[in-house]
Amino acid sequence: MTQPDETPAPEILPLGADGLLVRFSTRLDDAANRAVLGFADYLDEAMPEGVVEMSTTLSSAYLRFDPDRTDRTRLAARLKALLGQTDWLSLPEEAPKRRWHIPVVFGGEDGPQLADTAALLGMREERAVADLLAHPVRVLAIGFAPGQPYLGMLPERWDIPRLQEINPQVPAGALVVAVRQLIVFANASPTGWRQVGRSAFKPYRAGAAEPFPLLPGDVLQFAQVSAEEFDRIERGNADGFGGARLEITE
Question: What is the number of domains present in the chain?
């Protein structure tokens, strides 16, 4: 799927009465997302005066400010100066600091649209699953539901369209795919993406000390398990990690 030429970036745009959006791209790609996360990490250490909230999206960073401490013009000028210090869109790809290994069952009732997805790729189901497992994905952003990750980017052959009709509901833990991205659903939800598998991993764990286990920039490596093994994992999933293992490399 081709994408239109984008506006030169990064741009600083007004958003609401007390916010600014730093947009690194009008389309999603790895370079833009690395820029977003790199800039956000930098601001964590050098937050401009008056900023009270920051969040990241697939290709933008949002900053909300306190009007009693700064104004839009001053904050925009400060952000422009910070943006000019680095070529954010040329940041190198770095080794992940956190890597998750997450069991997934593919196909059958837990992945009802795997066959359809494989057909779009011109692959057999087994080959499509192997291709997914061969490409670890990064948490690009958290959104839509509490803790829910958007994951990518998959190879260009995975640039498959969303469904023309909405899936009425996929279960919590559903692994869905579209437009070179994957999502692990935090809750049962309707979606226009194709469900190819399911994990027992809970991106949102209410009541836990850290309710959102995933962070932007984390890498997820999926591992295939049988339906029987998945049932065993799900029955023993008291901690909500669903058999997942976190490897910290820093």
Answer: 2
pTM over 0.85: yes
Strand partners, 198: 105, 174
Output the six-digit token pair for 91: 């940041």
For residue 215 the two structure tokens come to 């962070």
Task: Kindly list the distances between the CA atom of residue 229 and the CA atoms of 106, 232, 233, 242, 243, in Å, as whole numbers in the listed order.
Answer: 12, 5, 6, 11, 10
Can you tell me the distance from the alpha carbon of 247 to that of 250, in angstroms, rounded to the nearest whole number? 10
User: Cα Rg for the chain, rounded, in angstroms?
Assistant: 19
Same domain, 102 and 196: yes
Residue type, 42: Y
Reported confidence tier of residue 67, pLDDT bands at 50, 70, 90: very high
CATH for 32: 3.30.1360.40
Cα(30)–Cα(137) distance, rounded to whole angstroms?
Answer: 11
Element (H, E) at 132: helix 125-133
Instruction: Kindly state the DSSP code that residue 239 receives in the 8-state scheme.
Output: T
Contact 232, 200 (CB under 8 A): no
Q: Which of these three, 41, 64, 90, is where a domain ends?
A: 90
User: Is residue 225 classed as helix, strand or coil in its secondary structure?
Assistant: coil
What does residue 98 show for φ and ψ, rounded to 5 degrees?
-135, 130
Mean pLDDT of the chain: 93
